[in-house]
């Protein structure tokens, strides 16, 4: 055993400049790359497109390997995947022609296109040379693996002798309920970017070799652009603030390689150059599609949405810490804190729970050397600012300058998640340095106080649930096995942060990994590729009718199926999720603009039977439900075909085809001109 320990110690010995050696960085990241290639080759995804399998086929879904599709993941299975398949059907155009007037596919819905900007989205490259299932697998896994890889890199930069703990922490962070319930590239890339920025800043300042600094800076620049073209500020702003605080702390921290402030700033030149290049590329991208961006910001919903500070309140603050109940989100659907599982999801936040250890380490450092750790101070300040955003009203002008009002109370949790991850690493690094100086571990009272903080956070969550709905109501009907999982998760979370507070980083990291797996592993199913509705008899019939007589289609919806079929078939249709509304399409539907308040919004456009010209309503802020009357002038002038699950009793349509699609009967009608 001692020989094995010696070999491991030699293998993890840092470089002379204190950074991790080549093997510690390269071997785990190489292994991660091998796993990615295997997943892509097998065409594995976490897609929930199988949610509609029972509508089109009898029996079990042969593509479903494990788990169950999640209806709440509609942004993935209903919106993004349908538009991706539409893009593939239309040969990846920069402008998708499903809606009359078209849709800028380079901005909306994270779609593959032949536009130059796809270079900035490596997860979409597979659509140029891989079959659909494998391309979708790359799209699914690459952003998530980027989070794991970047998180691991940051962890070993701060703790170069702890690759096992770094791997457990980064994989556990990936399986956080927040990511699994919000699993999209627009959620994952900001976290990966934040970790890369922080790791690159440390590398630039500490490294005695410039090649690595430039390589990491180039990768960071690329990731910056990949994050920016996702244009989802609510997730970007919080991680930018955390990253900026960390980098400021790094620049203010003297190191043997760069004792003076000026030298440390000059060492950041590769990162600054990479950042400037990324900003320039992003500006070019924004300018060349500015009309689309304006179309987004000029919508009624969401428009240019700004949130006032202090609106989260103590309920939102308590919700930050209810990760220990995340295993039960599927049953509770996010109640009582939110309207669904995604909005309710959060992180486990071990770094926040370690606040006593963080402060104790700061104090003992000051007593020993009269020096504080600027990185830790900066992280605590940005954490206080984000907490103030939730609970302290009255400083909106400052929040506006920090762009904080571009995020929301639920989405700022990503900032707390990234902050927590980094604080765990800061604690681990500081304790490792103390042990190297033979200063010993933190005392047991620090570990006890950490346990008390963790238990208090859970008590606050339970108290809020009691206030909102009552604990008996909330837990009514829960299975005994789920209770066991919940108790194990809570106790293991407490034990993990206690272990880290005492210097048991590897033990604590593995414990946190298990907690994350219990809560997040089963959120998304394991699926072979995606369910491609182009393989259905209905879509074949749609394409055949449209080829015989091209025209515009309307889908009458009692489920999502008609909309998905029309979008994926590649025909011109008035159904689908719109970003910046097509002015040409809506000028046909509402030529006077009288109903613009109801249709000028980001959301799903669907149709139901009605009388007269189209009349929109909004069941939800992001839904535009239209009425369709085949005898109305609009239908006779602008609509050729109608797809409906239910028969249409109207003299103004003729039945062209009836298709039995498993348990569902689909009807194709032609509008009488």
Question: If you had to describe this structure to a student in words, what would you say it looks like?
Answer:
This protein has 673 residues and is an alpha+beta fold. The chain has 30 helices and twelve strands. Strands 6-10-12-11 form a four-stranded mixed β-sheet, with helices on one face. Strand 11 and strand 12 (664-671) form a beta hairpin. Helix 2 runs antiparallel to helix 5 (132-158) and helix 8 runs antiparallel to helix 9. The radius of gyration is 27 Å and the shape is elongated. The model has no long low-confidence stretch (mean pLDDT 94).
> Major beta sheet, specifics?
4 strands, mixed
Strand line-up across the major sheet: 6-10-12-11
**Number of DSSP strands?**
12
**What proportion of the residues is helical, as a percent range?**
55-70%
* Count of DSSP-assigned helices: 30
Radius of gyration: 27 Å
Mean pLDDT, to the nearest integer, reads 94
Shape: elongated
Unreliable stretches (pLDDT < 50, length at least 5) are none
């Amino acid at each position: 055993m001692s020989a094995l320990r010696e070999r491991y110690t030699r293998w993890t010995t840092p470089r002379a400049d204190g950074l991790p050696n080549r093997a510690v960085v390269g071997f785990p990241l190489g292994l991660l790359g091998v796993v990615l290639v295997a997943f892509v080759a097998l065409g594995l995804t976490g897609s929930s497109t199988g949610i509609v399998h029972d509508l089109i086929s009898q029996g079990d879904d042969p593509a479903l390997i494990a788990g169950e599709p999640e209806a709440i993941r509609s942004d993935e299975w209903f919106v993004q995947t349908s538009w991706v398949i539409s893009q593939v059907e239309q040969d990846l155009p920069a402008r998708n022609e499903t809606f009359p007037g078209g849709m800028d596919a380079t901005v909306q819905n994270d779609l593959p296109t032949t536009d130059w900007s796809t270079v900035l989205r490596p997860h979409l490259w597979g659509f140029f040379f891989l079959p659909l299932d494998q391309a979708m697998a790359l799209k699914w896994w690459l952003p998530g693996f980027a989070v794991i890889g970047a998180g691991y890199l940051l962890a070993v930069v701060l703790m170069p002798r702890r690759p096992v703990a770094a791997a457990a922490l980064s994989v556990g962070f990936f399986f956080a309920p927040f990511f699994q319930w919000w699993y999209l590239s627009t959620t994952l890339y900001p976290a990966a970017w934040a970790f890369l920025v922080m790791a690159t800043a440390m590398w630039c300042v500490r490294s005695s070799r410039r090649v690595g600094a430039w390589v990491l800076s180039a990768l960071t620049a690329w990731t910056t652009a990949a994050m920016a073209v996702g244009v989802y500020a609510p997730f970007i702003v919080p991680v930018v603030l955390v990253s900026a605080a960390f980098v400021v702390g790094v620049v203010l921290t003297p190191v043997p390689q760069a004792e003076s402030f000026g030298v440390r700033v000059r060492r950041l030149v590769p990162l600054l150059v990479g950042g400037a290049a990324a900003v320039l590329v992003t500006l070019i991208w924004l300018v060349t599609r500015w009309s689309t961006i304006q179309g987004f910001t000029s919508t009624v919903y969401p428009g240019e949405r700004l949130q006032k500070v202090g609106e989260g309140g103590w309920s939102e603050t308590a919700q930050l810490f209810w990760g220990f109940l995340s295993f039960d989100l599927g049953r509770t659907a996010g109640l009582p804190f939110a309207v669904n599982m995604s909005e309710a999801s959060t992180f486990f936040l071990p770094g926040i729970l370690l606040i006593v250890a963080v402060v104790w380490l700061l104090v003992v450092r000051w007593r020993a050397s009269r020096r504080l750790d600027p990185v830790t101070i900066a992280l605590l300040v940005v954490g206080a600012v984000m907490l103030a955003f939730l609970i302290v009203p009255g400083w909106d002008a400052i929040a506006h300058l920090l762009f904080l009002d571009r995020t929301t109370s639920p989405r700022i949790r990503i900032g707390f998640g990234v902050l927590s991850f980094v604080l765990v690493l800061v604690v681990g690094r500081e304790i490792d340095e103390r042990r190297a100086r033979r200063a010993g571990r933190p005392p047991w009272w620090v570990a006890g106080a950490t346990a008390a903080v963790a238990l208090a956070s859970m008590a606050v969550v339970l108290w809020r649930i009691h206030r909102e709905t009552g604990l008996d109501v909330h837990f009514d009907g829960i299975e005994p096995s789920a209770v066991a999982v919940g108790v194990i998760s809570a106790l293991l979370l407490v034990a993990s942060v206690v272990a880290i507070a005492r210097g048991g980083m590897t033990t604590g990291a593995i414990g946190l990994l298990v907690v994350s797996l219990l809560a997040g592993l089963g959120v998304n199913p394991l699926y072979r590729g995606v369910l491609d509705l182009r393989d259905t008899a209905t879509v074949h019939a749609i394409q055949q009718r449209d080829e015989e007589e091209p025209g515009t289609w309307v889908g009458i919806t009692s489920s999502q199926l008609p909309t998905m079929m029309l979008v994926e078939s590649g025909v011109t249709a008035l159904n689908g999720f719109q970003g910046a509304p097509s002015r040409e399409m809506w000028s046909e539907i509402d030529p006077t603009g009288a109903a613009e308040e109801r249709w000028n919004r980001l959301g799903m456009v669907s149709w139901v039977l009605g009388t007269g010209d189209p009349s929109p309503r909004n069941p939800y802020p992001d839904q535009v439900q239209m009425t369709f009357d085949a005898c109305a002038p609009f239908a006779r002038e602008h609509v050729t075909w109608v797809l409906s699950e239910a028969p249409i009793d109207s003299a103004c349509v003729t039945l062209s085809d009836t298709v039995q699609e498993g348990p569902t009967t689909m009807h194709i009608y032609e509008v009488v001109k």
